[in-house]
Design a protein that fits this description.
The strands form five sheets. The protein has a 22-stranded antiparallel beta barrel. Strands 3-8-9-6-7 form a five-stranded mixed sheet. It is mainly β and about 850 residues long. A hairpin with a 2-residue loop joins strand 41 and strand 42. The chain is built from seven helices and 45 strands. The protein is globular, with a radius of gyration of 28 Å. The two termini are about 25 Å apart. The protein has a single domain, classed as Maltoporin, Chain A, CATH 2.40.170. It is found in: Cell outer membrane. Its main location: membrane.
C-alpha cells in the first residue's frame, strides 16, 4: 500500500503538517520559516499531490480528496480529467471512461486499493468510472510508467484509486454534506447526500486501531436532445442524406456507495488492513425518437418523400462494483515482507428492457426536408405528427446480464542492503490472478401482431402515447408510453417470440489466468536513483460460447496461451535542490477486449460475423523522458516526452476473400494490425502566487497540455491504409484559475480535447470514418466558510453548453449531435476534525 500523508480536512480547508509529510521538500523550506506551516484549501491539495508525484519512483499524476472537493465533479472519471494527459469519454454529458495520453480506455488498467477493478460492461475491459461516487475516494493516481512490481496491463496508464483510511487523519474526523442540483435541459431538481467518518484508537501495548466509513447517495434527473444520422450519407452523389432521426432522452441516475476500511498497527513494524467498497449505479433511460428514411437521398433544403418511423427505448440498467482487499506489511531489520489478497466483482444487469419499439408510418409522407448537415432536424407537415398515421411494427425486449470477477493474491519481499557503497533495495515477488467474464443475453422479438388477434386500430400510436417530449432542436409530436407496450407484451406468450440466435450467440464465458513474478533492484548513486528489473507474465485464456452455422448451433471452446518477459528501467536524477530528471524504458502487454475475443459467430451463406479468440495481445515498448522543476511546495513546472512502439493492436475488419473466407462476400471480425506508434509532449504548470501582496496572494493557476500523434496501418480485402489510433486526441488541455483566502474559495476550470477517430469505416472508404469533434467544457465552483466547520458551496457545470458531435468524414456531415445544457448545484457541508 502507498504510504499516506498526515492530513486533516475542515469543510474543504486542508491543514498539512509539512515537516513529516514532505520530507523530500524539507530542503526547499524558506530560511527562517517555522517547521510547521498551515496551507489552506486549493493550495494544500496541490501541495499534497506535488509531494507525492515528486517522491514517486514512477512518472505519475495525482489528485487528492480535497482536490476533488474543489471542483464540480460528479464521479471519479470527471475528477481525473483535470490531470495532465487525461481526458474522458462522456455518456449523456457525464464523464465515464478515461483516456490517458490520447489512448483509448480499453488500453488502461484501473485498480482500487491495490487490486484490479474489473469492468461491469459485457464486452469491454474499460471501467466506467461514473459508477464510483467521488466522495468515496481519498486519492486518484495515474501512473504512466510501470515498475516491475506493477501489473503490465496498461499502455496509457494505470489508474490507482485509494479509499479513505483512518490514518489519513490525526484523530476523529467526520464530514457530511447535502446538495441540490438543477438541470437546465429538463428543468428538474435532484438531491445528493454524502458523509464520512474516521477515528483512531490507542490500544495501549496492543498498538493502534483505525476505522473509516464513507457513504454517498445521489439521484440525478436530467436529459439530452439529439439528432443523428448514423452515418447515412451517400457521398457518391453530392453528399446526400439517406435518413435522419431526432431523439429525446429522459434519464434518472442513482448512485449509492458505501465503504468500511479497517487498519490495525500492533507495532511500528507491522500493519494490517482491510479495504471494502460497494457501489450501486442505476441508470433509468427513456428515449423517444422520430425519424424518416427518404425515398431518394436529399441535400439540405431539398424536399422529398420518405417512410416515417417512431421508436421507444425504455430500460433500467444496474451496475454494481464490490471490492474486498486484505493485506499487511512486516519489517524485520533490513527485510520487509508484504502481502495482499483481493476479490473484486463488477456486474451489469438490464432486466426486462424495451430495447426498441418501432411504429412505422402507414403511408409515405410528402414534403419532407431537413436543415443543415450538421443538425439535420426534420421539417414535416402536420400529418407526420398525427399518431393516427403510425402503427406498431415491432417490439424488441431484452434481458441482459454480465459479470466480471477477479481474484488475486500477491507476495512482495524487499531487502535493504549496501551495493558497492551505495544504498540499494532488492525486491522480488509473485502474483496469481484469476479472472472470469460471463455475458448473457436473452431477446424476444414481438411482431406480426395481426396474427395474434390484434386489429389495425389496436396498433395505432394513439393507443400507446405517453409523455410528450420537449426537445430544443425541433418539433416532436406525441411520445410513446412504455406502460402500454408492456401491457401488450403481457397478453402474449413470450415463448413464441424468443429469438434463439440473438440469445445464444451473444452468450460467452472467458476465463483468464495470469501468473506473474518479478525481480527488481533499486539503488541510489548520489543524486541518481536507478530502478531496474524484469517481470514475467504467463496468460492462459479459455473462451466458450455458441456459434450459428446455416441455422445449426455449435458449441465452441477455444484456448490461447502466451508468455511475456518484460524488462524495465526507471531513472530519477536530482538536479540540485529544486529540479529532477526522469527517464524510463518499459514494456506493456494489453489483452484484447472481450468483444474482440468473444467466440460466438454467425455464418449465413456467404456472409459471416464472428469474434476472434486467437487474437494476440497488444505489446508495446514505451520510452519516457522528462524534467520537473519545483518552484516551491505548491508550485511546479514539468515537461515530458513519450514514445510508444505498439505491436498487434486490434481493429475491426472484413476478411472476406482471404484464407478460410475466400468464397465469402462479407466476413466481419477483428484482426491484429502490424505496428502503430504514439508520440507526444506533456507540459504542466502549477503556481500559487503567495509572493504577491494581498489580495493577489490568493491567486492560483494550473495549466497542462498534452500534444500527441499516432500512426497505424490497417488492411483488408479492399487494400491497406493509414489511420490514427481510435480515441487518440492530438491535443488535450486543462486550465484552472483559482483564488482563495481563509473564508472564500473560487475556481474556474476549462477542459479541452481535440477531435479524435471514433470508428474506422471500410478500408477503401475513409469518408465513412466517424470522428468526434473537439470539446471544451467550462466549470465553476465557489465555497464560503460560514463558520468553523460549516461551508456553503455553489457549482456550475458545462457553462458554455458544450454539445457532443460526431461526423462522417467532414464536420459538415452529422453522425450524432447531442446537447445537454448547464447544471447548477447548491450545497452545505458540515465537518469536524
Amino acid at each position: 500500500m502507498r504510504k499516506r500523508q498526515a492530513v486533516s480536512r475542515l469543510a474543504g480547508i486542508t491543514f498539512c503538517t509539512l515537516a513529516p509529510v514532505l520530507p523530500a521538500l524539507a530542503q526547499d523550506a524558506v530560511p527562517g520559516a517555522t517547521e510547521h506551516v498551515n496551507v489552506i484549501g486549493q493550495a494544500a491539495s496541490i501541495g499534497e499531490a506535488l509531494s507525492e508525484q515528486r517522491r514517486s519512483d514512477a512518472i505519475e499524476s495525482v489528485v487528492h480528496a480535497d482536490g476533488v472537493a474543489q471542483l464540480p465533479d460528479e464521479n471519479a472519471a470527471e475528477a481525473l480529467q483535470r490531470l495532465p494527459g487525461v481526458s474522458v469519454e462522456r455518456d449523456q454529458g457525464e464523464g465515464r471512461f478515461v483516456s490517458v495520453r490520447g489512448l483509448g480506455p480499453d488500453l488502461n488498467a484501473v485498480t482500487i486499493n491495490g487490486t484490479l477493478l474489473p469492468s461491469p460492461s459485457g464486452d469491454s475491459r474499460a471501467v466506467g468510472l461514473d459508477v464510483l461516487p467521488s466522495e468515496l475516494i481519498q486519492s486518484l493516481t495515474v501512473v504512466k510508467t510501470a515498475t516491475p512490481d506493477m501489473d503490465a496491463n496498461s499502455l496509457g496508464g494505470t489508474i490507482e484509486i485509494e479509499s479513505l483510511s483512518a490514518f489519513d487523519h490525526q484523530g476523529l474526523f467526520y464530514t457530511g454534506s447535502a446538495e441540490g442540483s438543477y438541470d437546465s435541459n429538463t428543468d428538474r431538481y435532484s438531491p445528493k447526500f454524502s458523509g464520512a467518518f474516521s477515528d483512531r484508537f490507542d490500544l495501549g501495548g496492543a498498538g493502534e486501531f483505525g476505522i473509516a466509513i464513507a457513504a454517498s447517495w445521489q439521484e440525478r434527473d436530467f436529459g439530452s436532445d439529439n439528432v443523428e444520422t448514423g452515418d447515412a450519407w451517400d457521398f457518391e452523389d453530392g453528399a446526400r442524406l439517406e435518413e435522419t432521426s431526432q431523439r429525446d432522452y429522459l434519464i434518472t441516475r442513482e448512485r449509492a456507495g458505501f465503504g468500511v476500511n479497517l487498519d490495525y498497527r500492533p507495532s511500528t513494524v507491522t500493519s494490517l488492513y482491510l479495504r471494502t467498497l460497494y457501489s450501486h449505479y442505476k441508470d433509468s433511460e427513456t428515449r423517444n425518437a422520430l425519424g424518416v428514411e427518404f425515398a431518394d437521398p436529399l441535400l439540405p433544403g431539398e424536399t422529398g418523400e420518405g417512410e416515417g418511423f417512431r421508436e421507444l427505448k425504455d430500460r433500467e440498467e444496474t451496475q454494481e462494483i464490490q471490492s474486498y482487499v486484505a493485506g499487511g506489511e512486516h519489517m524485520a531489520g533490513a527485510w520487509t515482507v508484504s502481502g495482499q489478497a483481493g476479490y473484486s466483482e463488477s456486474s451489469e444487469k438490464t432486466p426486462g428492457g424495451i430495447g426498441g419499439a418501432v411504429f412505422e408510418g402507414n403511408d409515405d409522407f410528402a414534403g419532407l426536408s431537413f436543415r443543415s448537415g450538421r443538425k439535420p432536424v426534420l421539417n414535416a407537415g402536420p400529418d407526420f405528427y398525427d399518431p393516427a398515421n403510425f402503427s406498431l411494427s415491432e417490439i424488441e425486449y431484452t434481458d441482459d446480464a454480465a459479470t466480471d470477477r477477479e481474484w488475486n493474491i500477491r507476495l512482495d519481499i524487499a531487502n535493504e542492503h549496501d551495493l558497492g557503497g551505495f544504498a540499494g533495495t532488492f525486491k522480488f515477488g509473485a502474483k496469481l490472478s484469476r479472472r472470469e467474464k460471463e455475458n448473457g443475453s436473452d431477446a424476444w422479438i414481438f411482431e406480426d401482431f395481426g396474427d395474434y388477434g390484434f386489429s389495425d386500430d389496436d396498433l395505432l400510436l394513439g393507443n400507446f402515447t405517453g409523455r410528450r417530449p420537449d426537445s430544443t432542436l425541433g418539433s416532436f409530436g406525441p411520445g410513446i408510453g412504455a406502460d402500454a407496450l408492456r401491457s401488450l407484451i403481457g397478453r402474449l406468450d413470450r415463448d413464441e417470440f424468443f429469438d434463439e440466435e440473438e440469445s445464444r450467440v451473444n452468450d460467452f464465458t472467458i476465463e483468464e489466468d495470469i501468473n506473474a513474478a518479478y525481480v527488481m533492484e533499486t539503488v541510489d548513486i548520489g543524486g541518481l536513483r536507478v530502478i531496474a528489473g524484469l517481470r514475467y507474465e504467463g496468460t492462459e485464456m479459455t473462451a466458450t460460447g455458441t456459434g450459428l452455422r446455416d441455422d445449426d448451433f455449435e458449441a465452441i471452446s477455444v484456448s490461447n496461451d502466451y508468455e511475456h518477459w518484460l524488462p524495465s528501467l526507471n531513472l530519477r536524477y536530482r538536479l540540485g535542490r529544486d529540479a529532477q530528471l526522469r527517464a524510463a524504458v518499459t514494456r506493456s502487454v494489453v489483452r484484447p477486449s472481450f468483444e474482440q475475443l468473444a467466440p460466438g459467430f454467425v455464418i449465413d451463406g456467404d456472409e459471416a460475423a464472428f469474434g476472434n479468440p486467437n487474437l494476440k495481445p497488444l505489446e508495446s515498448t514505451n520510452l519516457d523522458f522528462g524534467i520537473e522543476y519545483y518552484i516551491d511546495r505548491t508550485s511546479a513546472i514539468s515537461v515530458y516526452a513519450f514514445y510508444k512502439d505498439i505491436e498487434n493492436f486490434a481493429y475491426a475488419t472484413d476478411v472476406a476473400g482471404t484464407g478460410a473466407w475466400v468464397g465469402f462476400d462479407e466476413a466481419e471480425t477483428f484482426a491484429n494490425g502490424d505496428r502503430a506508434r504514439v508520440y507526444g509532449l506533456e507540459l504542466a504548470y502549477t503556481q500559487k502566487f503567495s509572493m504577491l501582496p494581498e489580495p493577489f496572494n490568493g491567486l492560483l493557476i494550473g495549466a497542462n497540455v498534452t500534444i500527441s500523434d499516432s500512426d497505424a496501418s490497417i488492411s483488408g480485402q479492399d487494400g491497406r491504409r493509414d489511420i490514427d489510433l481510435p480515441n487518440q486526441s492530438k491535443l488535450v488541455g486543462n486550465l484552472t484559475l483559482g483564488w482563495e483566502n481563509d473564508d472564500i474559495s473560487l475556481r474556474l476550470s476549462a477542459n479541452h480535447k481535440s477531435r479524435y477517430l471514433v470508428e474506422v469505416g471500410p478500408i477503401d472508404d475513409p469518408l465513412h470514418d466517424l470522428r468526434a469533434d473537439a470539446q471544451t467544457f467550462l466549470d465553476f465552483s465557489a465555497r464560503y466558510t460560514v463558520m468553523d466547520g460549516v461551508q456553503l458551496t455553489f457549482e456550475a457545470q458545462n457553462l458554455t453548453d458544450q454539445a457532443f458531435y460526431t461526423y462522417a468524414g467532414d464536420r459538415a456531415f452529422n453522425a450524432q449531435y447531442e446537447e445537454y445544457g448547464p447544471t447548477f448545484k447548491l450545497g452545505l457541508t458540515v465537518s469536524s476534525f
